């Protein structure tokens, strides 16, 4: 099976063309667990699969490293777009992608056929607790105190394609992110689990994020998480509507307009053949 490996600000993916392979969902789940293993295979944060659809120009099917199906992945979507464009599956600068989180419209910033950056419509998100979901009697779960491992933290949870929880901190620490992110992900508040983002506000136009990703673990970058972080910080009055969001893997720009838009890079790492 031919594959490409790509990354979006350090969030890496294996992409394959599944339009004519006849593989079913259960087999893709097993394939994701196998090929995303960093010790025994190529290794990645997730598996991207190209499918035909009559709902949009193309469909992105996404699986996490643990074999679970993901509704959406922001960095993954940019990598998906580069894969389909560079392989001439879709050779145009604007197109629509069907995901489990709905149709995403994308714009490729190209120069002589080379992609410089990709702008993705990430949707509008939702603060409604029932949408996330969060088990609470409150309409929204905003700056609510939660006790994790004996420590009290203020959490805001939203749906940004997938569940995200944002916690503002004075300083970012990877060990802290891993320790508390792992616990919050599976907290009983979240029946579908949650991604966890620890956010430091630098100024009105810049924030830094460290993310513990549901079904994946600590990641160098999470597109939906960076979008969710900007959305929450804007809602709380911490930042403006155009924000640079930086993770360990790099920076994307989030613009809050009629919808939320993420602009960032997608980079090919290598290509080859998988023994499956």
Task: Give a description of the structure.
Helices cover 18% and strands 45% of the residues. With 276 residues, the chain is α+β, with helices and mostly antiparallel strands. It has an 18-stranded mixed sheet that branches. Strand 6 (94-99) and strand 7 form a beta hairpin. The longest helix has 13 residues, at 74-86.
The general outline is globular
Mean pLDDT figure: 96
Please identify the structural class as seen in this structure. Answer: alpha+beta
Rg over C-alpha atoms, rounded to the nearest angstrom:
18 Å
Beginning-to-end CA distance, first to last residue: 7 Å
**Residues in β-strands, percent:** over 45%
Q: Let me know the number of strands.
A: 18
**SS field, number of helical segments:** 4
Low-confidence stretches: none
Helix-strand sequence: EEHEEEHEEEEEEHEEEHEEEE
Percent of residues in helices:
10-25%
Keyphrases for this structure?
18 strands; 276 residues; alpha+beta; 18-stranded mixed β-sheet; globular
At a glance:
The chain is of the alpha+beta class. The chain contains 4 helices and 18 strands.
Blueprint (SSEs and pairs):
Blueprint: E1 2-8, E2 11-17, H1 25-35, E3 46-51, E4 58-64, E5 69-70, H2 74-86, E6 94-99, E7 102-111, E8 114-123, E9 141-148, E10 151-160, E11 162-168, H3 174-185, E12 195-203, E13 206-213, E14 217-219, H4 223-235, E15 242-247, E16 250-256, E17 260-264, E18 267-273
Parallel strand pairs: 2-3, 4-6, 11-12, 13-15
Antiparallel strand pairs: 1-2, 1-18, 3-4, 4-5, 6-7, 7-8, 8-17, 9-10, 10-11, 12-13, 13-14, 15-16, 16-17
